[in-house]
Specification:
Layout: H1 2-15, E1 31-49, E2 54-73, E3 76-89, E4 92-106, E5 113-124, E6 131-145, H2 147-161, H3 171-182, H4 184-191, H5 195-209, H6 219-230, E7 241-255, E8 266-276, E9 281-292, E10 301-312, E11 317-329, E12 336-350, E13 353-363, E14 372-383
Antiparallel strand pairs: 1-2, 1-14, 2-3, 3-4, 4-5, 5-6, 6-7, 7-8, 8-9, 9-10, 10-11, 11-12, 12-13, 13-14
Length: 385
Amino acid sequence: MGKLILFFTLFILTATSFGQNVKVSDYQVPVSTAKIFRLSGFYNFNQTTNDSATTVLNNSASATAFFRYFYSSLPFAWFIDVDATGGKNFDEFNHDISIRPSIRKYFSNESDFFGFGALSLRHANTYKQIASDLTVGGGYGRYINATALAKAVRIEEHLKRENVITGFLPKNTMIAIANIIEREDEYRGVFGDTYEKEWYEAIEGEIKASGMLTGNSLGAIGILRTQQVLKSINERVNERYYGWDLTLGVQFNLSRFDKSETRAPALSVGGRYSHPISWQSQVNAFFSVSTPMDSTFFKDVIGQAEIDYIYELSNRINFVAAYRINYIVPNIGDSYADQYVDASFIFYLENNINLGVNASLAKFGSNFNNRTDIRTSISLQYNLF
């Protein structure tokens, strides 16, 4: 175990990049936003043949959708998270759809204290109705999306490699370029279909003002490299977040999937944390704990936690690893945990089309007699935006 920890530590240190004049946490902006929509598909068919007959063992197909909309400003922030899966195994169909919108209002532009409201909606397979919960409360902290700055750093790396610039750009130049990248929708709204010309020229103007441009302009290769990063052509920059927040609230059960009586209000505690180890790697974590505010207070507990690690091996290959645990303490019976470990290599094939090589291990608690599942798969993913 000690050797494994040492290896992991050395791996993290090796992944850390040096040279840039700017850090992820330097990106302090009044408005931070991100929008992600990904579709993945999977099909599995196998059969066995002997002298007398051919038997189909598996004929299944599935698809997943992943949508995140993130907006954060000094006075308020809101989030929309959607996870959906659906599939067919022979003649049996299945689906699981979860939608989680939330909003938070900060007490002032300078304060990190906020009030929040969050709604959770879910429907799956034979549910008789949508299961829903509403949580209201307060919290502390801020969460910043610095993906635009990560794209500026990727552009800088290309331009330096192509000798378009003489070295690493100053921090204020990098932040200015990130702000221009962040304002893509603004440029599109003002200049229409030809907005990219104005967009790239604004970036070029900041680089020229730094005095580190080797010529009078970015040139054809400079514009090409910039376009490849900003339009995800043959490469992709992973989302970069930093910061943390904690929440404390009351969760109200509005409806249950089986139309039974709703549960008592529950105390809900949650938190999340993101730390950019380098421009190539990122760690994200979250947790949540809830317990009914009745006679089973802290006797009936539901806890969730997850940590994931992203490492960009190259501009076109990413490694993603994650660990998730669901811990249940029922009012009657023994507590148990369901644990999941996932690892994937993601290859960016063409523009927004990705190939994933995935492996997962799931260990289920007492309700499943401590069952362990090991799975491998290859998937295709399409990034709509």
